[in-house]
Amino acid sequence: MLTATARSGTAPSRDVRRARIVLDAAAGLENLQIAAAVGTDRNSVARWRCRFAAERLSGLRDRPREGRPPVHGPVKAEEIVGRALAEKPANRTHWSTRAMAGAAGVSKSTVSRVWRANDVKPHLVRTFKLSNDKHFTEKLRDVVGLYLNPPDHALVLCVDEKSQIQALDRTQPGLPMKRGKNGTRTHDYVRHGTCCLFAALNVLNGEVLAQVETRHRHQEYLRFLRLIDRSTPRDLDLHLIADNYCTHKHHKVAAWLQKHPRFHVHFIPTSSSWLNLVERFFGKITDERIRRGVFHSLIELIEAIHEYIEQHNRSPKPFVWTKDADTILAKLEPIAKRLNKTLH
Protein backbone atom coordinates (compact mmCIF):
# COMPACT_ATOMS: atom_id res chain seq x y z
CA MET A 1 0.00 0.00 0.00
CA LEU A 2 2.84 2.41 0.80
CA THR A 3 4.44 1.71 -2.59
CA ALA A 4 1.16 2.40 -4.41
CA THR A 5 0.67 5.64 -2.52
CA ALA A 6 4.24 6.80 -3.18
CA ARG A 7 3.77 6.24 -6.93
CA SER A 8 0.22 7.63 -7.12
CA GLY A 9 -0.47 10.60 -9.32
CA THR A 10 -3.81 11.38 -7.68
CA ALA A 11 -3.15 10.92 -3.94
CA PRO A 12 -2.64 14.07 -1.84
CA SER A 13 0.98 15.25 -1.88
CA ARG A 14 1.28 14.96 1.93
CA ASP A 15 0.36 11.25 1.77
CA VAL A 16 2.84 10.65 -1.05
CA ARG A 17 5.62 12.39 0.92
CA ARG A 18 4.94 10.38 4.09
CA ALA A 19 4.88 7.10 2.17
CA ARG A 20 8.21 7.93 0.52
CA ILE A 21 9.75 8.79 3.90
CA VAL A 22 8.83 5.37 5.28
CA LEU A 23 10.00 3.52 2.17
CA ASP A 24 13.32 5.39 2.04
CA ALA A 25 13.84 4.71 5.74
CA ALA A 26 13.22 1.02 5.12
CA ALA A 27 15.83 1.18 2.36
CA GLY A 28 18.42 2.35 4.93
CA LEU A 29 18.71 6.06 4.03
CA GLU A 30 19.62 8.65 6.65
CA ASN A 31 17.16 11.36 7.73
CA LEU A 32 19.10 14.11 5.93
CA GLN A 33 19.13 12.11 2.71
CA ILE A 34 15.40 11.42 2.94
CA ALA A 35 14.66 15.07 3.70
CA ALA A 36 16.56 16.20 0.62
CA ALA A 37 14.83 13.61 -1.57
CA VAL A 38 11.26 14.44 -0.56
CA GLY A 39 11.68 18.19 -0.05
CA THR A 40 11.26 18.59 3.71
CA ASP A 41 13.41 18.91 6.85
CA ARG A 42 14.98 16.12 8.91
CA ASN A 43 12.73 16.85 11.94
CA SER A 44 9.64 16.07 9.88
CA VAL A 45 11.30 12.91 8.59
CA ALA A 46 12.11 11.82 12.14
CA ARG A 47 8.55 12.52 13.31
CA TRP A 48 6.89 10.45 10.58
CA ARG A 49 9.37 7.60 11.02
CA CYS A 50 8.65 7.46 14.74
CA ARG A 51 4.88 7.63 14.25
CA PHE A 52 4.95 4.84 11.66
CA ALA A 53 7.10 2.67 13.94
CA ALA A 54 4.65 3.15 16.81
CA GLU A 55 1.28 3.15 15.02
CA ARG A 56 1.99 1.69 11.56
CA LEU A 57 -0.27 3.03 8.77
CA SER A 58 -2.67 4.83 11.11
CA GLY A 59 0.24 6.93 12.35
CA LEU A 60 0.61 8.51 8.92
CA ARG A 61 -2.84 10.09 9.11
CA ASP A 62 -3.45 13.65 10.33
CA ARG A 63 -4.59 13.80 13.94
CA PRO A 64 -7.60 15.92 14.90
CA ARG A 65 -6.73 19.45 15.91
CA GLU A 66 -8.41 21.34 18.71
CA GLY A 67 -8.46 24.71 16.99
CA ARG A 68 -8.87 28.07 18.67
CA PRO A 69 -11.28 27.99 21.62
CA PRO A 70 -14.52 29.91 21.01
CA VAL A 71 -14.52 33.49 22.20
CA HIS A 72 -18.19 33.32 23.24
CA GLY A 73 -19.65 30.28 24.96
CA PRO A 74 -23.08 28.64 24.90
CA VAL A 75 -24.53 31.23 27.30
CA LYS A 76 -23.98 34.02 24.78
CA ALA A 77 -25.35 31.83 22.00
CA GLU A 78 -28.53 31.21 24.02
CA GLU A 79 -28.86 34.94 24.58
CA ILE A 80 -28.57 35.68 20.84
CA VAL A 81 -31.13 33.02 19.94
CA GLY A 82 -33.48 33.97 22.77
CA ARG A 83 -33.51 37.65 21.89
CA ALA A 84 -34.10 36.87 18.21
CA LEU A 85 -37.11 34.72 19.10
CA ALA A 86 -38.63 36.83 21.85
CA GLU A 87 -37.81 40.46 21.03
CA LYS A 88 -37.82 42.96 18.20
CA PRO A 89 -35.24 45.72 17.77
CA ALA A 90 -36.26 49.32 18.33
CA ASN A 91 -37.79 50.97 15.25
CA ARG A 92 -37.40 47.83 13.15
CA THR A 93 -39.66 44.97 12.16
CA HIS A 94 -36.98 42.28 12.52
CA TRP A 95 -33.39 41.63 13.54
CA SER A 96 -30.44 41.86 11.19
CA THR A 97 -27.02 40.40 12.02
CA ARG A 98 -25.60 43.91 12.49
CA ALA A 99 -28.46 45.00 14.75
CA MET A 100 -28.16 41.88 16.90
CA ALA A 101 -24.36 42.21 17.00
CA GLY A 102 -24.69 45.72 18.40
CA ALA A 103 -27.31 44.68 20.95
CA ALA A 104 -25.48 41.53 22.11
CA GLY A 105 -21.94 42.99 22.02
CA VAL A 106 -20.52 40.45 19.55
CA SER A 107 -19.45 40.50 15.91
CA LYS A 108 -21.99 40.04 13.13
CA SER A 109 -20.14 36.90 11.98
CA THR A 110 -20.75 35.41 15.45
CA VAL A 111 -24.46 36.23 15.19
CA SER A 112 -24.62 34.70 11.73
CA ARG A 113 -22.85 31.53 12.91
CA VAL A 114 -25.16 31.14 15.94
CA TRP A 115 -28.30 31.70 13.88
CA ARG A 116 -27.20 29.15 11.27
CA ALA A 117 -26.42 26.57 13.95
CA ASN A 118 -29.89 27.04 15.50
CA ASP A 119 -31.83 27.48 12.24
CA VAL A 120 -33.01 30.97 13.18
CA LYS A 121 -33.93 33.19 10.20
CA PRO A 122 -35.36 36.56 11.30
CA HIS A 123 -35.14 37.97 7.75
CA LEU A 124 -37.67 35.43 6.41
CA VAL A 125 -41.41 35.29 6.98
CA ARG A 126 -44.03 32.90 5.65
CA THR A 127 -47.67 33.77 5.06
CA PHE A 128 -50.54 31.65 6.33
CA LYS A 129 -54.19 31.89 7.24
CA LEU A 130 -56.21 29.38 9.19
CA SER A 131 -59.61 28.81 7.62
CA ASN A 132 -62.71 30.08 9.45
CA ASP A 133 -64.96 27.71 7.51
CA LYS A 134 -67.58 26.17 9.80
CA HIS A 135 -67.28 22.90 7.88
CA PHE A 136 -63.51 22.91 7.55
CA THR A 137 -62.86 19.36 8.79
CA GLU A 138 -65.72 17.89 6.76
CA LYS A 139 -64.54 19.56 3.52
CA LEU A 140 -60.90 18.71 4.22
CA ARG A 141 -61.68 15.02 4.66
CA ASP A 142 -63.82 15.06 1.52
CA VAL A 143 -61.15 16.58 -0.73
CA VAL A 144 -58.20 14.66 0.71
CA GLY A 145 -60.23 11.47 0.41
CA LEU A 146 -60.60 12.13 -3.33
CA TYR A 147 -56.83 12.55 -3.66
CA LEU A 148 -55.86 9.46 -1.69
CA ASN A 149 -58.73 7.17 -2.63
CA PRO A 150 -60.41 8.37 -5.85
CA PRO A 151 -63.73 6.72 -6.75
CA ASP A 152 -63.94 4.04 -9.44
CA HIS A 153 -65.19 4.90 -12.93
CA ALA A 154 -64.64 8.60 -12.35
CA LEU A 155 -62.18 11.41 -12.98
CA VAL A 156 -61.04 13.81 -10.26
CA LEU A 157 -60.39 17.28 -11.71
CA CYS A 158 -59.01 20.26 -9.80
CA VAL A 159 -60.65 23.33 -11.32
CA ASP A 160 -59.83 27.01 -10.87
CA GLU A 161 -59.03 30.25 -12.70
CA LYS A 162 -55.84 32.24 -12.82
CA SER A 163 -57.20 35.73 -13.38
CA GLN A 164 -55.60 39.04 -14.29
CA ILE A 165 -52.65 37.59 -16.22
CA GLN A 166 -50.97 40.69 -17.64
CA ALA A 167 -49.37 40.89 -21.07
CA LEU A 168 -46.35 42.95 -20.03
CA ASP A 169 -43.89 44.38 -22.54
CA ARG A 170 -40.63 45.99 -21.38
CA THR A 171 -39.87 49.53 -22.53
CA GLN A 172 -36.39 48.49 -23.73
CA PRO A 173 -34.83 45.14 -24.70
CA GLY A 174 -32.92 43.42 -21.90
CA LEU A 175 -29.28 42.41 -22.06
CA PRO A 176 -28.49 38.67 -22.36
CA MET A 177 -26.90 36.66 -19.58
CA LYS A 178 -23.11 36.26 -19.74
CA ARG A 179 -20.53 34.50 -17.63
CA GLY A 180 -20.36 36.37 -14.35
CA LYS A 181 -23.31 38.62 -15.28
CA ASN A 182 -27.04 38.14 -14.91
CA GLY A 183 -29.45 38.94 -17.68
CA THR A 184 -31.18 42.31 -17.32
CA ARG A 185 -34.57 43.86 -17.97
CA THR A 186 -36.01 47.32 -17.44
CA HIS A 187 -37.96 48.01 -14.27
CA ASP A 188 -40.82 49.66 -16.18
CA TYR A 189 -43.20 48.07 -18.63
CA VAL A 190 -46.17 48.59 -20.94
CA ARG A 191 -49.46 46.73 -20.37
CA HIS A 192 -51.19 45.21 -23.37
CA GLY A 193 -54.23 43.86 -21.54
CA THR A 194 -55.10 40.93 -19.30
CA CYS A 195 -56.59 37.48 -19.68
CA CYS A 196 -57.90 34.69 -17.45
CA LEU A 197 -56.78 31.07 -17.60
CA PHE A 198 -59.43 28.47 -16.74
CA ALA A 199 -57.78 25.12 -16.00
CA ALA A 200 -58.78 21.63 -14.91
CA LEU A 201 -55.97 19.42 -13.64
CA ASN A 202 -56.47 15.66 -13.96
CA VAL A 203 -55.28 14.36 -10.59
CA LEU A 204 -54.58 10.89 -11.98
CA ASN A 205 -52.17 11.70 -14.81
CA GLY A 206 -51.38 15.43 -14.50
CA GLU A 207 -52.92 16.49 -17.81
CA VAL A 208 -54.41 19.98 -17.95
CA LEU A 209 -57.53 20.99 -19.82
CA ALA A 210 -57.47 24.74 -20.33
CA GLN A 211 -59.35 27.65 -21.83
CA VAL A 212 -58.21 31.27 -21.97
CA GLU A 213 -60.79 34.06 -21.72
CA THR A 214 -60.53 37.83 -21.55
CA ARG A 215 -63.17 38.07 -18.81
CA HIS A 216 -63.89 36.22 -15.61
CA ARG A 217 -67.65 35.76 -15.18
CA HIS A 218 -70.10 32.91 -14.80
CA GLN A 219 -70.62 32.93 -18.59
CA GLU A 220 -66.96 32.08 -19.18
CA TYR A 221 -67.04 29.47 -16.42
CA LEU A 222 -70.07 27.81 -18.02
CA ARG A 223 -68.23 27.68 -21.35
CA PHE A 224 -65.34 25.97 -19.57
CA LEU A 225 -67.66 23.43 -17.93
CA ARG A 226 -69.08 22.60 -21.37
CA LEU A 227 -65.53 22.13 -22.63
CA ILE A 228 -64.86 19.69 -19.81
CA ASP A 229 -68.09 17.87 -20.64
CA ARG A 230 -67.11 17.52 -24.32
CA SER A 231 -63.49 16.57 -23.63
CA THR A 232 -64.01 13.73 -21.13
CA PRO A 233 -65.43 10.22 -21.64
CA ARG A 234 -69.22 10.25 -21.28
CA ASP A 235 -69.32 7.06 -19.19
CA LEU A 236 -67.22 8.56 -16.37
CA ASP A 237 -68.40 10.63 -13.43
CA LEU A 238 -66.56 13.90 -12.91
CA HIS A 239 -65.57 15.06 -9.42
CA LEU A 240 -64.58 18.73 -9.57
CA ILE A 241 -62.57 20.26 -6.73
CA ALA A 242 -63.15 24.02 -6.68
CA ASP A 243 -62.88 27.01 -4.39
CA ASN A 244 -65.73 29.19 -3.10
CA TYR A 245 -65.51 31.98 -5.66
CA CYS A 246 -68.96 33.39 -6.39
CA THR A 247 -68.73 32.46 -10.08
CA HIS A 248 -68.61 28.77 -9.14
CA LYS A 249 -71.85 29.11 -7.13
CA HIS A 250 -73.79 31.31 -9.53
CA HIS A 251 -77.42 30.20 -9.87
CA LYS A 252 -77.03 29.62 -13.61
CA VAL A 253 -73.98 27.45 -12.97
CA ALA A 254 -75.93 25.52 -10.33
CA ALA A 255 -78.80 25.02 -12.77
CA TRP A 256 -76.44 23.72 -15.47
CA LEU A 257 -74.83 21.29 -13.01
CA GLN A 258 -78.25 20.00 -12.02
CA LYS A 259 -78.90 19.09 -15.66
CA HIS A 260 -75.57 17.25 -15.86
CA PRO A 261 -75.64 14.75 -12.99
CA ARG A 262 -72.25 13.22 -13.78
CA PHE A 263 -70.68 16.44 -12.44
CA HIS A 264 -70.05 16.39 -8.67
CA VAL A 265 -68.57 19.58 -7.21
CA HIS A 266 -66.50 19.45 -4.01
CA PHE A 267 -65.78 22.88 -2.51
CA ILE A 268 -62.57 23.31 -0.52
CA PRO A 269 -62.77 25.23 2.78
CA THR A 270 -62.46 29.01 2.58
CA SER A 271 -58.90 30.37 2.70
CA SER A 272 -57.50 26.94 1.82
CA SER A 273 -56.24 27.28 -1.74
CA TRP A 274 -53.36 24.93 -0.82
CA LEU A 275 -55.92 22.11 -0.96
CA ASN A 276 -56.50 22.62 -4.69
CA LEU A 277 -53.71 20.94 -6.66
CA VAL A 278 -54.31 23.07 -9.75
CA GLU A 279 -52.70 25.92 -7.79
CA ARG A 280 -49.44 23.99 -8.09
CA PHE A 281 -49.78 24.09 -11.86
CA PHE A 282 -50.55 27.81 -11.79
CA GLY A 283 -47.36 28.37 -9.80
CA LYS A 284 -45.40 26.29 -12.31
CA ILE A 285 -46.63 28.13 -15.40
CA THR A 286 -46.07 31.48 -13.67
CA ASP A 287 -42.46 30.67 -12.78
CA GLU A 288 -41.55 29.02 -16.06
CA ARG A 289 -43.44 31.04 -18.69
CA ILE A 290 -45.30 34.13 -17.49
CA ARG A 291 -43.39 36.06 -14.81
CA ARG A 292 -40.25 36.74 -16.84
CA GLY A 293 -41.95 36.69 -20.23
CA VAL A 294 -42.09 39.66 -22.59
CA PHE A 295 -45.33 39.90 -24.56
CA HIS A 296 -45.89 42.51 -27.26
CA SER A 297 -49.64 41.90 -27.36
CA LEU A 298 -52.40 40.06 -25.55
CA ILE A 299 -52.61 37.57 -28.45
CA GLU A 300 -48.93 36.75 -27.96
CA LEU A 301 -49.53 36.04 -24.25
CA ILE A 302 -52.51 33.78 -25.00
CA GLU A 303 -50.51 31.86 -27.62
CA ALA A 304 -47.64 31.42 -25.15
CA ILE A 305 -50.03 29.99 -22.53
CA HIS A 306 -51.54 27.52 -25.01
CA GLU A 307 -48.09 26.43 -26.25
CA TYR A 308 -46.90 25.84 -22.69
CA ILE A 309 -49.94 23.72 -21.83
CA GLU A 310 -49.62 21.70 -25.06
CA GLN A 311 -46.00 20.94 -24.24
CA HIS A 312 -46.93 20.08 -20.64
CA ASN A 313 -49.56 17.61 -21.83
CA ARG A 314 -47.08 15.76 -24.06
CA SER A 315 -45.39 14.34 -20.96
CA PRO A 316 -47.52 15.27 -17.94
CA LYS A 317 -46.53 14.46 -14.39
CA PRO A 318 -49.15 14.40 -11.64
CA PHE A 319 -48.76 16.27 -8.37
CA VAL A 320 -48.95 13.45 -5.83
CA TRP A 321 -50.82 14.17 -2.58
CA THR A 322 -49.32 12.26 0.38
CA LYS A 323 -50.79 13.59 3.65
CA ASP A 324 -54.00 12.15 5.05
CA ALA A 325 -56.63 14.31 6.75
CA ASP A 326 -55.69 13.24 10.30
CA THR A 327 -52.05 14.24 9.77
CA ILE A 328 -53.08 17.66 8.45
CA LEU A 329 -55.49 18.27 11.31
CA ALA A 330 -52.86 17.28 13.88
CA LYS A 331 -50.46 19.80 12.35
CA LEU A 332 -53.06 22.59 12.35
CA GLU A 333 -54.29 21.96 15.90
CA PRO A 334 -51.43 23.82 17.68
CA ILE A 335 -51.98 26.84 15.39
CA ALA A 336 -55.70 26.80 16.14
CA LYS A 337 -55.04 26.69 19.88
CA ARG A 338 -52.65 29.61 19.67
CA LEU A 339 -55.32 31.62 17.82
CA ASN A 340 -58.03 30.45 20.26
CA LYS A 341 -59.95 28.81 17.44
CA THR A 342 -61.59 25.46 16.97
CA LEU A 343 -61.28 23.37 13.83
CA HIS A 344 -64.88 22.56 12.95
Structural summary, described in words:
With 344 residues, this protein is α/β, with parallel strands linked by helices. The chain has three domains: 2-60; 74-117; 136-338, Ribonuclease H-like superfamily/Ribonuclease H (Nucleotidyltransferase, domain 5), CATH 3.30.420. Helix content is 44%, strand content 14%. The chain is built from 13 helices and five strands. A five-stranded mixed β-sheet has the order 3-2-1-4-5. A hairpin with a 5-residue loop joins strand 2 and strand 3 (208-213). Helix 2 (13-26) runs antiparallel to helix 3 (31-38) and helix 2 packs across helix 4 (42-55). The longest helix has 17 residues, at 298-314.
The gist of it:
The protein is an alpha/beta fold and 344 residues long. The protein folds into 3 domains: 59 residues; 44 residues; 203 residues, Ribonuclease H-like superfamily/Ribonuclease H (Nucleotidyltransferase, domain 5, 2-Layer Sandwich), CATH 3.30.420.
* CATH homologous superfamily assignment of the largest domain: Ribonuclease H-like superfamily/Ribonuclease H
Structural class: alpha/beta
Strand order of the largest sheet: 3-2-1-4-5
Can you tell me the CATH architecture of the largest domain? 2-Layer Sandwich
Helical segment tally? 13
The count of β-strands is: 5
Question: What's the order of the H and E elements?
Answer: HHHHHHHHEEEHEHEHHH
Which CATH C-level class of the largest domain is it? Alpha Beta
Which spans of ≥5 residues are poorly predicted at pLDDT below 50?
Answer: none
| CATH fold-type name of the largest domain | Nucleotidyltransferase, domain 5
The 3D shape can be described as: elongated
N-to-C CA distance: 70 Å
Biggest sheet: strands, sense, closure? 5 strands, mixed
| Percentage of β-strand residues | 5-15%
What's the helical proportion of residues? 40-55%
Rg, Cα atoms, Å: 33 Å
